[in-house]
Structures are given as C-alpha cells and as structure tokens.
What we know:
The protein is an alpha+beta fold.
Amino acid sequence: MFNNAEWPNLVRLYDHIGVEYVPVDLSKSYSFFGEKSFLNLDASYRPKLSLSLLSKNVRQISADADKMMSQVSDLPGVGNGLTLREYLNVNQFSDTFVFEFLYPSLSSTVCTCSYQALDNYPASLLLNSLAGIIGNDLSDSRSLMRTRFGSLDVARRLAKNVADIRFGTTVVSATVESNQVKIVFDNGERQSEASFDHLIVATQANQSSQFLPALTEVERNTLNSFQYENIETIIHTDESQMPADQSNWAHFNFVICPEASMCSVWMNRFNHDSPFDGNVFQTISPINDVADEQVLTRETLQRPIVNQASAKAWEAIASFHREPDRRIWFCGSYATSGVPLLESGLVSSLNVAEAIGIEIPELLSPSLV
Ligand SMILES: Cc1cc2nc3c(=O)[nH]c(=O)nc-3n(C[C@H](O)[C@H](O)[C@H](O)COP(=O)(O)OP(=O)(O)OC[C@H]3O[C@@H](n4cnc5c(N)ncnc54)[C@H](O)[C@@H]3O)c2cc1C
C-alpha cells in the first residue's frame, strides 16, 4: 500500500510507467483473541460513534491518538533522539492506547516488527512517517492505494527495457578487478562469469555481505549493523484468526494478545476480483498456528528494523557512495533514512543513480520526501 504523501516518488514512477492503482478500503477491527471486536474504524483513526457511546478504553485510545497526531511535530520528545518507548513514557501515553491500538497497528502493518523492535524505533522518524500515512486529515494525498494488477505487473513494466534478465540465478560472488566488477552467477545447473562497469547490490543488507568477499571491514560492519526480523505470513481459510463475531469483520483485523498481536487481512475484501469462493485471509505474524489443511501458502519474510544506530549506518552508506572510482553500490529499502518501505527503496536507487552520474527523470527526486 502507498499514498501520495509518504510515497511521492513511487506514485510518480507508477504513473510514468502506467501502473494502475485503486484505493484501499481501510476498515479496521481491533479485538482480543477469540472475542468480539472492541473497536471498529474506517479510514480515520477516529471512532465513528460519538465519544459518549464509546467504552472508557476506546475513549482513552481516541484521546491519545488525537494527542499524538495533533502534536507530532512539536511534542517534547519528538525530534530529540528519543526511542518510541521513551517518547511514550515521557508523554504519558496510556498502556491501553499503546498495547490495544498503537503497537498492534504498527507491528503488523507500517513497521511489521516485534514490540521490542518498536520500543527501539526512533520516535521522531516513525511518528512523522505515521502522520504522513494516517495524519489528521483524510485528504486525497493520504488515501492509501494498492496496485490494481499486483507486483508482477509492476515488475514487468519496470523491466521492459532491460535487455538481459536472469531468473533463478544467484550472484555467488562479486569482486572488483581493474575497475571492473567480476560477477559469478549460479543458475542451479552451472556457474558463469561476466564483468560490468558497476554493480548495484539490491539485495538485503544481511545477504550482501555473503557474496561480496572484498568488502572492507567498515563496509562489512556497516551492512551487518542493519538488523532484520523474520515475519511469518500465512494465507489460509481459518476463521478462528478473525474476530469472534463475523459482523465485526473488517478489511484489516488486528487481534491482540498481551505481548504481541497479529493482523489478518480479509483477502476477499482486499481484492474485489478475488478468485476464491470461500473466505481467505492473510495473517501477518500469526500468534496461533493454522492447521496445515487450512493453509494455502506460508512464507517467512524479513524486514529491516530501524533503531538509534540506523542513522550512522545510513550516513556510512552515503559516504561509501562519495568515494572516487567506486564500483559497488548499495540499494534497497534499508539503505536510506526512513521507515523501510517501497519509497525508501526507490529513493535509495535515486541516490545511487545520482552518485554514478546517471540522469534521473525530472519527475523523481530524493528531496520530494
Ligand atoms: C508483510 C510485509 C508487508 C509490507 N507492506 C508494505 C506496504 O504496504 N508498502 C510498502 O511500501 N512496503 C511494504 N513492505 C516493505 C516492502 O515490501 C520492502 O520495503 C521492499 O520489498 C524492499 O525492497 P528491496 O528491493 O529493498 O528488497 P527485497 O524486496 O528484499 O529484494 C531483494 C532481492 O534480492 C534477491 N537476492 C538476494 N540475494 C541474492 C543473490 N545472491 N543473487 C541474486 N539475487 C539475490 C532476493 O531474492 C530479493 O528478490 C512490506 C513488507 C512486509 C514484510
């Protein structure tokens, strides 16, 4: 998902290459496992019912959410290097708000990470990004969208003018020799070699260091300083992962246990042209396992986590890219400032293009964010 406010380059790129996108129905439910939902929201983080009709906890969540969103830019604590946990403590946000709303929302959508990683997120960076995603107003620039025909359509459009694409091929080693980068490929059957003027490494940071034997110690330490967490994602038909009462089911369903939470996306609602007859869900970070016979597919993904050390690593990458005669470049959502999302991945590619001296189309710019 993306919007104009937080993903300005991505939206311009999609427009430029003809990717179609549609608004996402942002209905959300919040419930404890096996119970009815205690909060249902539309696009806004504000409940639909008037305050007097809401439970005490929901009134507290609503008041704290308003406080956070209205004061993101000037609350004491934001912008002065506090972690999210420190910021929440200093500003006395209630546990109800944090553990029944904020952390469930962030841990399975915006940041897709554990509560411990959320505690350590730089508050200023995360809250400013959050304001761009949900904000105070629901202007068009904040409406979240999704691509109409999925990532495969985007990949095909982006790759249209690329002459040589090798699928199912792993880069097993890359070394710099006489200002050329020698790559060894492995397609599962045989190994082959080729030399290039430049290598843009667009794998995760923790994968890059495995096939780059010639990294300097500083480069290796920098790449290794980016930490990743595993995210389990299951697509399944198990209705017990959803709120107990089907009339509470929303598009995004946050189910909470004391120490963690999960989000189940009701896929039949997410994709209007869903090919499934029965209900199908995508559960991110499932708390309870789903029986094999109800699983359609299961993937473990990884997402970089951001903490107080990230700024130093982002600056180190920028400084590597300023070195004269550089041949190996680092690109990806982890590699530049921000919550690691598609926009930061795209911005990091613009940074690399600028550093190599490739002309960037006028419509795109790292400074749009
Ligand atoms: C559950 C979940 C939901 C998300 N939702 C959103 C969202 O709504 N909006 C958003 O903006 N972002 C979202 N993200 C984040 C987004 O998906 C990532 O930021 C983005 O995919 C990162 O792109 P990347 O190009 O940096 O890295 P990747 O997508 O990880 O690409 C790296 C590629 O390198 C390949 N590779 C690795 N090693 C080698 C090798 N040796 N040789 C050849 N190839 C190799 C890998 O196979 C992989 O294809 C979500 C992430 C998760 C996990």
